[in-house]
Structures are given as C-alpha cells and as structure tokens.
Design a protein that fits this description.
alpha/beta; Leucine-rich repeat, LRR (right-handed beta-alpha superhelix); eight-stranded mixed sheet; 5 helices; 37% helix; U2A'/phosphoprotein 32 family A C-terminal domain-containing protein; Leu-rich_rpt; LRMDA; LRR_dom_sf
Length: 216
Amino acid sequence: MGAREESPTSVHLEVSLNNTRLSLAYSNLTDFPIDVIDRYGGSILELDLSNNKISDLRFLMELPKIQSLVLDHNHVTSQVKMPLCRDLHTLWVNHNRIQNLGFFLQTIAKNCPSLKILSMMNNEAAPSFFNGGTYQQYVDYRYFVVSSLPTLEVLDYTPITESEVREARRLYPSRMVNSDSETSLRRKLMKKRKKKSGEARQKEEDTELEMPSPGV
C-alpha cells in the first residue's frame, strides 16, 4: 500500500476581508494534502501550487470556491483530470508537460466556463521564442486558444485583442460557433433558472394571500 501524502512543513495562509489565499509552493507534493482540504477547502479562493509534482487536479472538487490557481512547474499533461470549476477565472500552467493543445483546451473549455486568464508558456503545446517555436507558430497558437475559450481575456500575460478574435473566428469558424452556442446555452439556462425561481417565490406569495385568516 502506498504511503500517505505527508503535510508540507510550512503552509503560508493569508486571509483578508475579501479572500483566502493558500500557498503550498515548493512543497514536493504529488497530491493535495487531505488535512489541508479538511481545514481550508471550503474557503480557498486563491491557491499557489507552483514547483511541485502534481499531475491530477481532481482534488479541486473539494475547493468549491476556487477562483485562481497557479500550477507553474508541475507535471500537468494534456490528459489532465479535473472537475468542473465554475468560478475559476485564472489558471497558470507554465512549465508543465502539455503536448496536445486541442485535447487540453477541450478539458479546460468544459470545466472552466468562467476562465479569463490563462498562461501556459514553456509547454510543448504552446510554441514561442522560449521553447524554439517560430513567430507564426505562436500567432497560430493564440488564434486556436482564442477560438476554443470564448471567455478568455488574457493569454500568456498578453491581452487578447479584437483583431485576434476576428482572425480566430475566420480561421476556426466551426470552433467559434460551437463556443458561442455553448455560451449562449449557459446564459439561457441561467435566465431560465432565475425565472423559475422568481415564479416559485411569486406562487408562494400568492398562496399566502389566498390563505384564510385565523377564525374565518
């Protein structure tokens, strides 16, 4: 039987009025510590796990409020397993082992519907000057990412421009259509839930008005 993941020797927890930030960087972790989940899982908004050996992200299901995740210098691959993270808006996976861009983006698009900031420099799937890629490869890579993640605003520290969105739409029209459709569907479902909730409240209020007063 495998050894239980030990807790790191130091946990740097910073708490402010508006958020909770946890850093477990440089802790030689292969898994997220269970005792840390038990203590802080329900309140973590920002998590720094840089410079570890993590490859499986299914532990994120225990962090329901996570908004920002830093995983630089880990063992994340294109086939990474991760749950739905509705509120995650920032993801850094620089210096990992991501080789298949399409496969990785499919997972991110499905499980990070609110993602605005993504940085994945120095991965094989993200060609750039830093890993031997040409300028044209870098530009094409940006167009492909933009076409896959419709909510994204910043890629690799560089804001996404309107011209990039237009070019991504021209080069990958089918991906943009699918992304737009999914985004539209999510919005319609949210409106439907709100409408249903409002109708339920109105029905309760009408029922209370129709109820006879005591003694009638």
